[in-house]
Amino acid sequence: MFGIIGMISGAVAVPLSMSAAPISGEAAAVSAVSIAESAVSQGQSKKRNNQTSEREGADQVTDSRLAKFHILAHCEAEGASPNQRLVVLREGNLYLDDMEESRRQFPDGHPFSGFYVDYPFRGEQPPPVGLVSTISVDPPKLNWIYVDGATLEVKYGNKTQTLSDAENIITPWDWTDDESRVTLEGWEGFVALEKTPGSWVLCYDKDEDHLSTRREGRAVMECFLMRQLM
Q1: Gap between the Cα atoms of 195 and 165, Å rounded
Q2: H or E segment to which residue 63 belongs
Q3: Among 48, 49, 63, 193, which residue's beta carbon has the most beta carbons within 10 A?
Q4: Which pLDDT score, from 0 to 100, does residue 96 have?
Q5: pLDDT digits (tens, 9 = 90+) for 59-68
Q6: Which of 12, 212, 48, 23 is nearest to 132 (CA)?
Q7: Residue of 109 and 17 predicted with greater confidence
Q8: Which fold is adopted by the domain 69-229?
Q9: Which residues lie below 8 Å from residue 216, measured CB to CB, with a gap of 6+?
Q10: How many whole angstroms separate alpha carbon 69 and alpha carbon 86?
Q11: pLDDT score for 3
């Protein structure tokens, strides 16, 4: 298998990313190492702080965030029955596809397979929680998940791509109190936008207006992002 696998505490394997889009080998390596170092740092922090019962409880939360999961989008449209779709990565976006592999619309789609890890690139202390996913099986590259500040589409990319626009929303990612669903900026503000007829992409409804200034007459569905542990 190509690429590198980094091991962190709790026997969690962290695949190291290159990038989603063509970039120089040096930049790709920096992106890969940065993600790995952040995850390893979290693992080392767990060991250092494993001294009191209170800290042990906090460390268990940190370790749990490193568990890999798929995302299932539970979507609801006015006048239609709720439906559940698998979130897949392709062409820079997160698309919704059929749960059954034999009925998939996008054969090139890679099912979201990710986990939470600190995002260390903006100098914030402590670093906010980011979200990463593999973007391919072999090699098992990792990319950051973020929201495009202009389109509000949920995208994936390397460090450079996440920081390409000051309006991009990169953190903080989290989960609901019962750890079952994904949140961003403290709430579940996700919608699916019909990008082309029959093709749906995941977006972030930042302004709580169902993308009224961006949808251009296209359909929008509210979504909850369910975590399915791998």
Answers
A1: 22
A2: helix 53-64
A3: 193
A4: 98
A5: 444 678 999 9
A6: 12
A7: 109
A8: Trefoil (Acidic Fibroblast Growth Factor, subunit A) (2.80.10)
A9: none
A10: 12
A11: 33
**Domain limits, CATH 2.80.10, in the chain:** 69-229
- Residues 166-225 pLDDT 10s: 999 999 999 999 999 999 999 999 999 999 999 999 999 999 999 999 999 999 999 999
DSSP string, 80-132: S--EEEEEEEETTEEEEE-SSGGG-S-TT-EE--EEEEE--TT--SSPPEEEE
pLDDT band at 35 (very low <50, low <70, confident <90, very high): low
Question: What residue type is 168 in one-letter code?
Answer: N
Residues above pLDDT 70, as percent of the chain: 71
> DSSP string spanning 162-190?
HTSSTT-B---EEE-TTS-BEEETTB--E
Token pair of 14 as six digits: 């962290």
How deeply is 26 buried, as exposed, middle or buried, from its count of CB atoms within 10 A (0-12, 13-18, 19+)?
A: exposed
Distance between CA atoms of residues 157 and 219, nearest Å = 26
Predicted TM-score (pTM) of this structure? 0.78
pLDDT of residue 62: 60
- Scanning the structure block, which residue is given the tokens 């369910």? 226
List the structure tokens of 110.
């890679």
59, with CB counted inside 10 A (0-12, 13-18, 19+), is buried
Task: From 74, 90, 78, 114, select the one nearest 199 (Cα to Cα).
Answer: 90
Alpha carbon 166 to its chain centroid, in Å, reads: 19
Cα(76)–Cα(222) distance, rounded to whole angstroms? 5
Which two tokens mark 204? 């972030």
